[in-house]
Amino acid sequence: MELPIYVPGLPARKMRTILFTFGLITLVFLLFSDVESWLSTLFCSQPLILSVDVRAHNLRTRSVPKRHLFPIKLGSTISPNSKVLLLKSSSTSKDSSTIRAALQAQRISFISLAPDRFQLLPSFLSSAPSAGPVNLIIFEQFLLWTKLPPEYKAAIDNYCQKFGVGVIGFLLDEDLLIRQSESFMKLSTYPLLLRRLHSAPSGFYLAAESPVLNISRGGQYDPATLSPHSLFPQRVSVKCRSNYSRQLATTQLIAQRFSNDLPDYDSVLRRQRRSCDYEKPPACCLATLVPSPGFTEYFQTVAFTKLSPIDSALSPHDDLHSVSRHSCAFADLPQQQNYNPNEQYQSLVIEDVGGIDGIKRVLFAYGASSHWSVHLLLMDAVRYLLSSVPRKEPLKALEFDIGYNRWVHVDIDDIFVANPDSQLYPSDVKALLAVQREWRKMIPGFTFSLGFSGGHYGHGSAIGRRGDAELLRNRNACELSRGINRRMQPDAVHNLPIQEGYAVAPHHSGVYPVLPSLFKAWKEVWRINVTTTEGYPRLFPAWNRRGFAYDGIQVIPRQTCGVYTQTLRLKDYSGGPHRLQEMALGGEVFQTLLYTPVSFFMTHFGNYGQDRLATYVLSGAFRFLLAWTHLQLRTGSPEFLTQQHLAFHRRTEAPTSASAGLPLMSNPCADRRHAEIWPPSNPCDPDLLPSAIIGGPQKTGTTALLTFMAAHPNLVANHIRSQGTFEEPQFFSNNHIYAKGVAWYFDQFPRTPEELARLNKSFGERQLIRFEKSATYFDSFLAPDRVLALLSSRAKLIFLLKDPLQRAYSCRLLLPLRVNADCHLVRQSKMQTTWCLRSALRYGMVRLQEEIDEEQKYSPRLSPERGRRTKILLKVFCPHDHQRSHREEAALHFTFAEVLRASGPEQAASLVRQQRLASGGDAGTNNSSSALAARLLALNRRCLQPGTYAPFIDQWLLRFPPHQILLLDADQLVSAPAVLMDRVQEFLNVESYVNYSTLFQFNERKRFFCLSGGPYPAAGRLLHWDQESGLWCLSRNKGRSYPPLMPTEDDKRIFQRPMQDLYQLILQRQFWRPRNSTSVLDIIPPWLQRWIRPVGS
Fold first, then answer.
1. This prediction's pTM
2. Could you give the CA distance from residue 531 to residue 505 in angstroms, rounded to a whole number?
3. Across the strands, what pairs with 87?
4. In a domain, 717, yes or no
5. Strand ranges (DSSP E) for 749-855?
6. What is the DSSP string of 539-565?
7. DSSP string of 333-392?
8. How crowded is residue 139: how many other Cβ atoms within 10 Å of its Cβ?
9. Of 918, 951, 984, which residue constitutes the final position of a domain?
């Protein structure tokens, strides 16, 4: 019998004291000895490894005989301004979102159509559609093609055959397509069968012979069973919850009681017949594609799988059992020991080479969101079909050729941060260096970039400080970049290698949303040239992250790998370990590497301790990418990688681009992450932004419309300044102004009660609608995207349309006279002559260079800035005169009328020959004549472009729905402004209706309408008190009557096509119309109808 331990004479209290003392000594010993370091080495040195089992196979698929290959039509060409047409099976679906994401990640322009818009197919597939030619068609559900109305199906087939356009299609929901009693389904008259599999096949194989594969590495396979799983988390519907059946029974019982008492009662309760199984992720690879008998040689396998023994067995009860054993692959070494002649392989992805009907197709036997391979194979299929037919011009559906190199940079942030859970032990540092050596086998020259905040150095626990010391001993093995949070200089003390010019802000604060003062400080104080951010334009989706340039600093998009500051152990990962594995093996991290030429990955110090999840994910993603693709991983310094990044984004993110590389600025309050790092002192209330914009175009009466709208008590216009751009903010069209940032734009509108009171706007009593007017927005290709980013697609747009011929006539002939009159008055009043130029800028007028030269005689000290801005206006409004002032050869040799007649290469060459003969020269063709003809043609396009409305409206329609665009007749603003203002009020849905017919009075002396009543402080200096009439009128330079203009035959020929395009655009798109409108003709201006009427007569 065992006896309890007892020490005679030792009290229990003293015993507890001894035990406590012993425990305390033991704890101190552990903290200040190598025991803990030894334990950390023992238990933490074995890293987790993500298994990547991809092997090479020796199977060879059947090759298509040359006689069945589709003959290429050398005469078939498609315009380089190409688009992909995506035909969706429903308005919203997961599969269409996956396809859209894949196209957007490759910067591919596309148009998507839901079934309710299929009636637009004939216009999209015409030989010269307004939205741009289509050179690839993708079906979210390929069965849509088989079930289309005959005229739509014929339109698609004829277009594809005529222009060599390829088709990509997905076949999904095989459980719904094929009845339980059958194993095959015929795709209408198309000679391909969809076979249902009764059990999961094993192995995903890429064919070694397929010409579709480019980036994909053919001849590889994964032997794992293709279980039905998705890359997306499983949704849990209310119908799949455990208590749903009981709740449903109770609800049905209550409904039955009502129906017994009320015979006419009909419950709205409906139970779907489909079980909750449909809420599970879509199944992958439970169907294969088998060519119909006699058509095997017309198809080439791209990817295939090995059938299970059950599906490989012959089914005598199936009417198509003769093809059930068709195999797309066979072993080239049948004598090898492991060869099994009973193994059957069938296609998962197949290519129709075009021998059947002249159309090349790539078809998938599974949905777009069912398997990781869709992103890889879709990328190859798109490029293959886009480049399968030779074209006369380079194909531009792809913004850039992404190539085979992927540049990788890995940042480790928060080095030396003394968080007990995230600090590194010495063994972790050794493991980090071992990983770096291992990665250099995959990425030559790879080195981790360690970002540190000096203020945290030396503040960790004893074992953490040992880890820091181990890192310092190996300081030459890594590169360090300074953080800007608690910045001190341990690099100077410990001689650390520092990457100059590169740094990352804490939480990316100030990078985006942009704070101009912060960028200025970075450049002047720390001489930073490169930084990164993950928040532009938003954190998710990852493929949509972009970079930009601002104030001399290049911002590169930063990528995440699924692990963050608090992601330390695999068992605690949100979504489970399977989710993290999925991200690396075909998921988000893999797709980032696939689609992004240059990737700056963000990781944290703690991700390399504990379970070392950063190396776990990235190692798996790197090995998976190299196993399945021909891509090569590369690395370099931040400055070098910045240049590589800009090589792919030169047109959008470089400082030399048309947008100056500036980011699209969004409302910081619209994104929670952005709002958290936005300074509280800066406004970001969306109600303070304009909900309507008068977008132009210039010389159509936009200033008058702004003035009349500002007189409305519910409408609040932007501040009308006395300098700069005057009544126009021009925020979205002017790079210099846009760079001032969102906070500056907020300041352009009155927002405080005091400001509104000064403008006679009652704050809080009425619904105030803010708006702004900038006529430069209409023809700016930058403005639509910028307006959409900041104001969202709910913004309303107002465009004034004027007869382009009358507009050009008034600009070309009459405005210089008006400016001369203004300048004459200025001289009489002995004011500085530069005010004449300022007056021209103020009224949006154009001055010929001869008049500017005349002005120099009166004022030799003409302000260079005034002269520069005048020349800018000259260039915008009258490019012919502007080019004459710059001694442009084409403008010097030809009159304005001749420039207008040079509408094509032949016409331009003919005019050059005539000019040579008239000047006594040789009319023969030579290099100088060809160059002059090219300049003449370019000048013609610059002169005519401002008067072509349809292309510019099309650009806005790509971002805004047509029912939010108001088209107004500029002539009506002069003849019947009250009627026009009624339309504006209805369009904006103002709270208080103003009867403008009682405010407008016609001024006989000025010959245009003025406002009675007043004063109107909100209109600022735009309205002037006319003492003689007692009315508030526009300035005397507004509303002048022009002599009548009769278009010549040349004018009709030049402007006829732009008029027809505008007419057709208004007819086809559902622009906003007033409630009393009975026909779309009600919004077509009379001057446009006059241009069109002779065509139909």
1. 0.77
2. 8
3. 113, 139
4. no
5. 769-773, 796-801
6. SSSGGG---EEETTEEEEEEEE-S--T
7. -TTSTT--TT--EEEEEEEE-STTTS--EEEESS-TTS-THHHHHHHHHHHHHHTSS--S
8. 24
9. 951
For residue 1075, what are the contacts with CB-CB under 8 A and spacing of at least 6?
Answer: 986
Q: Which two tokens stand for residue 713?
A: 């008590």
What local confidence, expressed as pLDDT, does residue 872 receive?
A: 38
Domain count across the chain: 4
Geometric angle at alpha carbon 1026, from 1022 and 1032, rounded to 5°: 45
Section 834-842 average pLDDT: 34
Domain of 535 in residue numbering reads as: 405-659
| Residue that has been written with the tokens 């014929």 in this structure | 154
Q: Residues 828, 899: one domain?
A: no
Inform me whether the pLDDT recorded for 89 exceeds 80: yes
Per the listing, tokens 């009907």 go with: 357
> Residue 1008 in 3-state DSSP?
strand
Per the structure block, which two tokens stand in for 344? 């059957």
Binding-site members for 3'-phosphoadenylyl sulfate are 810
Question: In the structure encoding, which two tokens stand for residue 209, read together?
Answer: 């012979």
Which CATH number do you get for residue 539?
Answer: 3.20.20.370
DSSP H or E stretch at residue 196: strand 190-196
The residue assigned the tokens 């890995």 is 410
118 within domain boundaries: yes
Distance in angstroms (rounded) separating the CA atoms of residues 577 and 224: 18
Pairing of strands 59-61, 329-331: antiparallel
Q: Which of 228, 238, 239 is nearest to 369 (CA)?
A: 228
Helix H, strand E, coil C: the string for 436-466 is HHHHHHHCCCCCCEEEECHHHCCCCCHHHHH
Measure the CA angle with vertex 473, ends 472 and 474; round to 5°: 85
Question: Which of helix, strand or coil describes residue 94?
Answer: helix
Classify residue 496 by its DSSP letter. Answer: -
Q: Do 374 and 500 belong to one domain?
A: no
Q: What is the pLDDT of residues 669-698, one digit of tens each?
A: 888 888 888 888 888 888 889 999 999 888
Residue type, 510: G
| pLDDT tens profile 519-541 | 999 888 888 999 999 889 888 87
177 and 299 share one domain: yes
Which tokens hold the place of 92? 């919203």
DSSP code at position 996: G
Instruction: Burial-class residue 222 by CB neighbours within 10 Å (0-12, 13-18, 19+).
Output: buried
Distance of CA 170 to the CA centre of its chain: 24
583 CB neighbour count, 10 Å cutoff:
23
CB 771 within 8 A of CB 795: no
Give the residue numbers marked as catalytic.
699
**Nearest residue to 452 (alpha-carbon basis) of 481, 425, 420, 478:** 481
Binding residue ranges: 810
Count helices and strands in the chain by DSSP H and E runs: 40, 32
Say whether both 852 and 896 belong to one domain: no
Percent of the chain with pLDDT over 70: 70
Joined tokens for residue 322: 């003769």
Tokens read off for 355? 């021998």
Asked whether residue 195 is domain-assigned, the answer is: yes
Q: CA-to-CA distance for 502 and 516, rounded, in angstroms?
A: 18
The two tokens of residue 431 are 């493991």
Residue 108, class by beta-carbon neighbours within 10 Å (0-12 exposed, 13-18 middle, 19+ buried)?
Answer: buried
Residue 419 and residue 325 share a domain: no
As a whole number of angstroms, the distance between CA 518 and CA 539 comes to 21
> 3-state class of 85 per DSSP?
strand
- DSSP for 707-720 reads HHHHTSTTEEEPP-
Which amino acid type is present at position 891? A
Residue 828 domain flag: yes
